Fold:
Amino acid sequence: MKLDRSEITGQPTPSVAPLSNLSTVLPMSPEGSTQPPKRSSHQPTRFNRDLSWQVATNLLVSFKYAATGISYAFQTQRNFRIHVVIGSVAIALGIFLQVGFVEISIITLTIGAVLTMELLNTALESVVDLTVQQSYHELAKIAKDCAAGAVLISAIVAIAVAGCLLLPPLFTWVQSIL
Structure:
């Protein structure tokens, strides 16, 4: 049996425009009017971003913000630095062992997935900390633990992938020097 939101909360369910009618949904102006914004023929449509903290004015600025985030994670997150070092060692080992381009690409992709998960974990933890501040909340703990679990799973998979691709050539190299 499917329950309606109004049956659970006692509040009316907000109406949602069907997908076919999205073109008829008009943005609300600050005064509450639903009149479409006036456009001149030579200016692109601008969206209201008054609530945004900072908006990238161009693509270069967007890359700068991304680099700032990566730099922040590298400077403040011990695990991010560990992943960068281990990933660099794995790529260097693959190059040293002269594994194929495809194998190096797969190792690089898995390292990228781990670093991406670590960045998302850092972002999620920051947002949760901002929300709950100095208080404890069980849902905040669950969110942080799940994000950390996602990083752990991606790291285990990356180790398995690197092991499958690097251990056979490494054993061959060790046997050749003995």
Remarks:
- The chain has five helices and no strands.
- The CA atoms of residues 87 and 111 lie 6 Å apart.
- Helices lie at 5-9, 59-76, 78-96, 101-132, 138-177.
- Confidence is low (pLDDT under 50) at residues 1-6, 14-34.
